[in-house]
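Hi team,

As requested, here is the filled-out complex form for the adenosine monophosphate run. I kept the field names the same as last time so the parser does not choke. Let me know if anything looks off before we queue the next batch.

— J.
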Amino acid sequence: MINIVIFGAPGSGKGTQSELLIQEYGLSHISTGDVLRGQIAQQTELGKIADSYISNGKLIPDELMIDILDKVLDSMQDSKGVIFDGFPRTINQAEALDKLLAKRGASLDIVIGLEVDEDELIKRLINRGKTSGRSDDNLETIQKRLDVYHSQTNPLREHYIKKNIYKAIHGVGDVTKIFGEIKHAIDSL
Ligand code: AMP
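And here is what came back:
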């Protein structure tokens, strides 16, 4: 079993590279953003709570998010491994992830950090907003999400560097070339 966190700021290409990883390795994929948007679309109680955070560019509270992840992991018992996309986003969530995996006799193998400069991120997210229909792909919310990323999520980079499982990947340029570097890092495990 191989467990991969695909890490990076909003707009860094996590979703795109996750798709390629799924095709290449046949792994399960958890995008916590997709899970939440699914709940919003179905107008569930959880969706109603999530909507207020997402459209303000804020993070959903850790306990709620960890609980959701625990349930999704239960549905992936027989998986060859999991790509975590958009989780963890706080140190609390990272610690919870270790516990959730340990409970299943597994651990995190690698954190792929897609590193993209801020101007490029904003450009990509504004562009995506033209077609994504996402309530948070507008300039005001993008700025908030990037602030939240810097204050709450970016500390995870150091956290995983210390644990020796962080692999930095320059996330600008040809998508296939970026994927080649990711693949190399995974195949070297
Ligand atoms: P994403 O699709 O990963 O960009 O996530 C969109 C939004 O969903 C984020 O801005 C948060 O409001 C919420 N979200 C997704 N994943 C998490 C998480 N792990 N912790 C808290 N909030 C999250």
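Two things worth flagging: The chain has a mean pLDDT of 97. The longest strand covers residues 2-8.

Thanks,
J.
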